[in-house]
Structures are given as C-alpha cells and as structure tokens.
Amino acid sequence: SDEVLADRIRAAKATLGDKLVILGHFYQRDEVVQHADYVGDSFQLANAALAHPNAEAIVFCGVHFMAETADLLSGPEQAVILPNLAAGCSMADMANIEQVEDAWAELTEIYGHEPDADGRAPLIPVTYMNSSAAIKAFCGRNGGIVCTSSNAARVLEWAFERGQRVIFFPDQHLGRNTAKAMGISLEQMPLWRPNLPLGGNTEDVLNDAKVILWNGFCSVHKRFTVAQIERARAEHPNVRVIVHPECPMPVVDAADEAGSTDYIRKAVEAAPDGTVFAIGTEINLVQRLAAEYPQHTIFCLDDVVCPCSTMYRIHPGYLAWVLEGLVDGVVRNQITVDASVAEPARVALERMLAATP
Ligand code: 13P
Ligand code: SF4
C-alpha cells in the first residue's frame, strides 16, 4: 500500500543519510514529492545537482533529460539515478541528433561561416533544457547554449550578442513565445523543414529569419486552448490566468502571464488572499498549489485533467526499489552520459549558468 511504500522510502533515506539527495520536479505526484529533499523547476534542479557535491547518490524524480543534466553537472564519483528508466519526455525525443546535424549542415551551406562586421556568427544553436545530452553537446561544440523556461529570454539575448540568428530546439512554442516577447515578428521565425524549400520564397524566408524554430512541442501543454481561457474569464471575472510558455502562442497571448513552473508557484505564493487563479500547466503542480494555498481559488484550465504521463512513471514503488538498492550497495538505473558527449554538453550548460544571474 501507499503507506507501506512511504515507510520503506523513509527507512532507506534514514539509513543513507547525507550520502543521498532526492531531487523532485514540480510535476511529480505528491506521493513522490513528499520524499524529495529539494523540489523545483528544471533550472533550480540543475543548480541543486551542483549544490550537493558530497552526496554519493542523486536520485532524480523527474524525466530522463533532467537526470542527464544532473549527471553532467555532478562530480565523477556521484551516481545519478532515475527511478524508472522509461520516464522520458516526448518533446525531447522530437529532436534527434542526426536530424539536428542535417539541419545544421543545410543551414551552414546557406549562411556560411563568416562573421558579420560586429563579429557575430551567422547562426547560433540554442536548445531548451528539454533535449538529449547529445543535442546539448551539439550546441556546446557550435558556439551555442542551453536555456530553460525561466531564462529563455536572457539566453536569447546572449545568443544575439554573439550571432545574427538562432536555431532553437526542440520546443517551437517556447521559442516563438520568447522571441515574440522580445519584439521579433512571426515572419522572422520560420518553422524549420528539412530538405528545403520552406514555405514562401525559401531564400527570402531564411534571409529574414531571426529565430528558426524546430518543430517540437509538449503534448501536455499543447492541449490548452484560448476557449478554456475565455470560459474561465466568463465564470470568474477577476481570474488571473497564468500558463507555461510551452503553451501555443495564442494561449500565451490570451493569458495574463506566462512563466516557468517556479514562476507560477511564486505568483501564487505572493498573491493577496482570495485570488482566483486559472493555471495552464501540468495537473500535479496545479493540484498541489490548490491544496497548499487554500486561501486562493486555484484550478487547472483543462478540467479533463492533463498529467505528464512520463513524469507519472516515477511511481513510489520505483523510488523504494532504487533506494533499497543503494542501502544494499547496488546502484540501479544509473544515468551516465558518455564523456565525449558530456564535455561539450557541459560547455553549453555552463554558458547558460554564467549567463543567468
Ligand atoms: P520548468 O522548467 O518550468 O520546470 O519546465 C519543465 C518542463 O518539462 C515543463 O514541461
Ligand atoms: Fe516533457 Fe511536456 Fe512532460 Fe514537460 S510536461 S516533461 S515538456 S512531455
């Protein structure tokens, strides 16, 4: 039962003490979050991995790319563990390294390698944290950088200081929403299609491009609609609508605010009592906020329930299993990034950490 599992997890944690740190993403179910030493958004969890250099094991309750990132940022003697290896991210899977290298080759053919008069490269690759270590490594090798939903605008500024234009992997919505907020027009952000031509006159499209968007998306956040926001406003005239920037652009435009999971949590925390929130993000976070802040009215824009099915694969049973393995001296489900990938991937991540105060 749930209580038996919770007791097993607590007992293993008590035995392991400081040798262990458990990190949990905001989208994890409560039965997992209650055991986490640190809960945060993907940027905070990357920093949390850096902040525990003495833990022998970092158990990451989140998805595969987050555990890879923790492995990149942690020490060589530390083991990063993903309780269920099937916890991937469908968006991260939408950019594979072969496709990315092909796109880069096509674009490099068009733009060349020559910097402009200000020394800016023709093209800078930027990848959302929600991508494989191989894509991060590609960015590291090609003058690029990683961003998260909490620092995407700052990272794009970094990229435009060094490049004339950007190719953004894999989330088209985060890329579009962020670029739009920076004043870039929709015509200047074409969606990449392999084997040109793009829509319209390819040469014109590519000459005008500022941010070339990869065709990825989050299947959870894609479900939110403008109609849901309109309904929330009709039912609650003072509602404050906050959505995650992985939502499609019309949804972000119709909302009052957009921000990372931690942005959403902070907004709820800082609001005066009695605020009504309609939130467009994963249901576990929304329901937890609703329970933690009973002084507000908090509901999810999508009342048919939208869990992230891969985040949900971290069942407490797996958590107990990997922790009891550690107690017995057995490391289960370790995530290790190959050194040839890890080195350049770390370069791209460190650029992000340095660019983000
Ligand atoms: P955050 O960076 O806001 O935690 O988002 C991660 C994620 O996977 C959202 O779908
Ligand atoms: Fe990936 Fe979307 Fe799940 Fe986030 S919510 S982990 S982007 S599938």
Automatic annotation (TrEMBL):
Cofactor: binding details: Binds 1 [4Fe-4S] cluster per subunit.
Pathway it works in: Cofactor biosynthesis; NAD(+) biosynthesis; quinolinate from iminoaspartate: step 1/1
EC number from the UniProt entry: 2.5.1.72
Role of this protein: Catalyzes the condensation of iminoaspartate with dihydroxyacetone phosphate to form quinolinate.
Binding site for iminosuccinate: 25, 42, 128-130, 149, 244-246, 261
Organism: Gulosibacter macacae
Recorded catalytic activity of this chain's protein: iminosuccinate + dihydroxyacetone phosphate = quinolinate + phosphate + 2 H2O + H(+)
One GO cellular component term noted in the UniProt record for this chain: cytosol
Localization terms from the record: Cytoplasm
Domain of life: Bacteria
A Gene Ontology BP annotation from the UniProt entry: 'de novo' NAD+ biosynthetic process from L-aspartate
Keywords, sorted A to Z: 4Fe-4S, Cytoplasm, Iron, Iron-sulfur, Metal-binding, Pyridine nucleotide biosynthesis, Transferase
Positions with a binding annotation for [4Fe-4S] cluster: 89, 218, 308
Protein name: Quinolinate synthase
Keyword Nucleotide-binding tagged: no
Listed cofactors: [4Fe-4S] cluster
Lineage per the UniProt record: Bacteria, Bacillati, Actinomycetota, Actinomycetes, Micrococcales
Chief localisation class: cytoplasm
GO molecular function, one term: 4 iron, 4 sulfur cluster binding
Family per similarity comment: Belongs to the quinolinate synthase family. Type 3 subfamily.
Keyword flag Aminoacyl-tRNA synthetase: no
